[in-house]
Amino acid sequence: MQGPIVSFHPMIDADRHILLVSRRALDRADRLAVAGAAAVILPQTPRPDVYELVAGLGKPHFPRAGVALSLDGKVGNLRLLTALGLPHPASVAFAEVAAAVAAWRAGRPDVLALGRPVVVKGAGGGMGQNVFLVNDPDELSALTPQVQTHSLHGPRGLVLQRFIDGGGADLRVVLLGLRHEAYWRVAPSGQWRSNLSQGGQTLRDRRSADMAQGVALARRLQRAAGLDMAGVDVLIPPGGQPLLLEINFYFGRGGLGGTASFLELYLAAVGRWLAALGLDPGRARLCADD
């Protein structure tokens, strides 16, 4: 396979390293570089114009980000999981909070079937900050100013989801090409959100059989959706079957040991991908610190 390896990732160098600082527009030199590339390394969530250029020219690239740039966010996740027929908690999507409130007050069967309490997830946001637990439509209505319904790379709106007790923990499976990292996120005592930013703790040595099931489900999602890199949240109720909760295309690195450790994992995934293409993994490397 002829041509240079081109990297748009700010922290991964290659034969040609293109930095799009200050949101500068793509220029002719960028387009010629991609056109002549043997392979292209992308950021975790690339700019849409960069992805359109690389994919449009049919260049091998890592990670594949088509799903991340079209079905990101809680509403997009629900559409994807429903379309793929993968197990997830019963959920109903709405374009606006007012529409969800009206449906609940009107006794719409699909909303009532969710039971109480209901998990409310705005389309955008992260780290558990746009997720709420409510018991009735009045509580939901009061959250109108707080629910973020905009999603940068996915459909807007919100999701009402059945609350399922996962025993105070869920499983985060970080997909890194052909490999993965998995760990439990355990909620603080008396809390229901297990996000690390909400005080959750990580555990790796726990419920190993359940962890294997959760990883297997995340891998099913990866194959079905064509994902290379994502943080997949899986809920495994005690004695129950695993359910997909969310797909995070830009996720926290705390459970992986921080940014430096994550970049090493990212580079390793890139190396495996390059090797599969018949290219020398050594042609990609982390940028040296200044």
UniProtKB/TrEMBL annotation:
Transmembrane segments: none annotated. The keyword ATP-binding applies. SUPFAM superfamilies: Glutathione synthetase ATP-binding domain-like. Keywords: ATP-binding, Nucleotide-binding. One of its GO terms (cellular component) is cytoplasm. It comes from the Bacteria. The keyword Cell membrane does not apply. Residues 78-276 form the ATP-grasp domain. InterPro entries: ATP-grasp, ATP-grasp_RimK-type, ATP_grasp_subdomain_1. GO terms for molecular function: ATP binding; metal ion binding; ribosomal S6-glutamic acid ligase activity. It comes from Desulfarculus baarsii (strain ATCC 33931 / DSM 2075 / LMG 7858 / VKM B-1802 / 2st14). This is RimK domain protein ATP-grasp. GO terms for biological process: SOS response.
